[in-house]
Amino acid sequence: MTDSFDIAVIGGGNAALCAAITAAEAGARVLILEAAPKPYRGGNSRHTRNFRCMHSRPLGPLTDSYSEQEYFDDLIKVTGGKTNENLARLAIRGSEECLPWMEERGVRFQPSLSGTLSLSRTNAFFLGGGKGLVNAYYRTAAALGIEVRYEAPVTHLDVEDGKINGIEFTQNGTTHRVSPKAVVVASGGFQADTDWLARAWGPAAKNFLIRGTPYNRGVVLADLLEQGVEQVGDPTQCHAVAIDGRAPKFDGGIVTRLDCVPFSIVVNKDAERFYDEGEDVWPKRYAIWGRLVAAQPEQVGYVIIDAKSLELFMPSVFPPIKADTLEDLAGKLNLPADRLCATVEEFNAACGDTSAFHPTELDSVATSGLTPPKTNWARPITEAPFYGYTLRTGVTFTYLGLKVNENAQCSIGNRPMSNLWAAGETMAGSILGQGYLAGFGMTIGTVFGRIAGREAVAHAN
């Protein structure tokens, strides 16, 4: 296999496929090395729903317009300014031309979902979800003659003099080596290695759930970092959301996400509130709740709502825990009943006029004199039956990754490597210093996947 391929792409998700397709369309012989079995191909992209896209006028399923500056401002809000502005704007500007590119390669879109998402102007939703997108790209890859090796995890990249000389991977119990002209790494973060998470976070990480694929263990990332390839990002920063506590350890995906927080109060195991549940519209603030829950005792939180809020959000795959009284709900959630009732009573007393309540917009229906406050959607919890969910930290992907430049090129010793590029979650920390913006991971993967494919094939040629 030594000289069979111009380009090897490590990974099998959105970024990898965008890179592989771009390179193959330019005439390159491309190999994809996917660690997962074929039914589980696609990495975390299988679980995605949408793509955040800049546009100057209505585009495909997107309404109105969404400017570069508004997009960037939204990103700054969630990252607290911890971003590389040059790379962030590159991703944002590149997103507009990506949507028709995606459609031309078989991806189909649908109108935005109802509920608390409110994204018809900013995010294009995939028909069939992420699995539909992944399958469309694999069909395109097959038509282009791209070779895909499944259950073929990469174990080592041979780095010498600023260049990748060869790639070792295993398949069917045998070690293989390939020496392509160019390499694109798109193999995700390290979140599925819970020992690595625990080294970064401490023992609390053992209680985290992993929303996506169990195959993103950071083997390639660790191998390259150990050989001096430049890194970016904080190992404790990640895309972490609060998900249903009944979700499986791995691969629960998008259906375990809970969108009910804005219409609830959230308490810890002592039945005490700990943060403003109404801080902002959910697509901009949902990603902070994973870290908030991680900081609570036993890394668990509890959502409390009443009957009038039950239909305002997209339900989880699991039904809520239901009780006719708060005392009974506390018992079912293993919370101290007296403290939960007191917390709800304090919250209810702090609520004021709710006539301006609007579930999909910031409505300023806020509490008064309560710490922490609830600054929007603050309605008393009074209408039986009452409902509860447990919350756990669900990690989507980690931000420690490979540092890249505007050409998606990796570097070593402050010098660009001659034949190594990176795209997707494995380099997203170059842009995401903290926090997350709904649909932005797919933007990064698509834009930088295409850039990496373009640059890799230019080198190979």
From TrEMBL:
InterPro entries referenced in this protein's UniProt entry, alphabetically: CobZ, FAD-dep_OxRdtase_2_FAD-bd, FAD-oxidoreductase_2, FAD/NAD-bd_sf, Succ_DH/fumarate_Rdtase_cat_sf
Names of required cofactors: FAD
Pfam families hit by this protein: FAD_binding_2
FAD-dependent oxidoreductase 2 FAD-binding domain boundaries: 6-433
Molecular function terms from GO: oxidoreductase activity
Transmembrane segments annotated in the record for this chain: none
SUPFAM superfamilies cross-referenced by the UniProt entry: FAD/NAD(P)-binding domain, Succinate dehydrogenase/fumarate reductase flavoprotein, catalytic domain
Keyword Cell division annotated: no
Swiss-Prot/TrEMBL keywords: FAD, Flavoprotein, Oxidoreductase
Protein name: FAD-dependent tricarballylate dehydrogenase TcuA
Organism, scientific name: Rhodophyticola porphyridii
